């Protein structure tokens, strides 16, 4: 089973909303970080005419797609930001009704992800907490479980912390907020199929504190941090429409994992399942009718891994590149990997689930 891996970032902003780089410069930063695709998600504006491959003199190219981050500007307190992908039209007029927005995106064949669903206050940066506030909604595609800028904001509890982590962010970055992981596991346990992603939320803005000004953080820096890796049986062709279809198909099906590239690149991670008659990858399902199922995960370097079912750990490995176990019960099985970095254990990889069905 030949698989192709594509690394991208799905949450980015340009000067059309509150970012600092336009599409071509952002694309160049992403190619320098080795990304294969970007999705631009400006706030409440769908920017037409910017999708396609961007080519550079060094021979590198990258696929740039257009999404949108939609939220109600009049809402107090603000929150419930929704990332819309592959809707191909302006939908911010529906921002006041999140359920209608999610339903409309689904009707267009698009995907909807709840952005930074849990946040923590950081008055040094801003007072707003942009958590998701409408948990009664249904039908969304997934959750953005790891948002780099949201986690950084959560570290900024004082002026001293702000200065320290602005210069040494990877001493503080540890992983998604536990509330987000708990919400995801709760949804999985209740039978919902929820795809997860991890992203930069890149703006490239410069912040000032007294005489010191610093960009927190440049786009290229963020593209070497938290990304989403797609795993597909289809190979990119270099044609925009075909490769756009590959990206959104993998996202829709959950054929992807979240990787934190700073400790060590996560490209090459795989999670699969097989029994006597069939096999599958992340996001797919496999039946126990055909016998006991073997789950297997492989990492590109030694790390600590565990396999979880509906939030409960069922297998562990320490300082290994592989973990496997045999299961015979239905459930949503996923992998978490941690790795030692800067003298602490850090979250490194979160797979999407494999669904074992009766």
Walk me through what this model shows.
There is one protein chain. The chain contains 7 helices and 21 strands. With 358 residues, it is of the alpha+beta class. The strands form 3 sheets. Strands 1, 2, 3, 4, 12, 13, 14, 15, 16, 17, 18, 19, 20 and 21 form a 14-stranded mixed beta sheet that branches. Strands 5-6-7-8-9 form a 5-stranded mixed beta sheet. Strands 10-11 form a two-stranded antiparallel sheet. The longest helix is centred in the last third of the chain and has 14 residues. The model has no long low-confidence stretch (mean pLDDT 95).
The description of the largest β-sheet is: 14 strands, mixed
Secondary-structure element pattern, one letter each: EHEEEEEHEEHHHEEEHEHEEEEEEEEE
Strand residues, percent: 35-45%
Mean pLDDT across residues: 95
Parts with pLDDT < 50 across at least 5 consecutive residues: none
Q: Any idea what the shape is? A: globular
Protein structure class: alpha+beta
Number of helices: 7
Give the helix level as a range of percent. 10-25%
What is the radius of gyration computed over CA atoms, rounded to a whole number of angstroms?
20 Å
Number of E-state strands:
21
Amino-to-carboxy terminus distance: 24 Å
Features:
single chain; 358 residues; alpha+beta; 14-stranded mixed β-sheet; five-stranded mixed β-sheet; 36% strand; globular
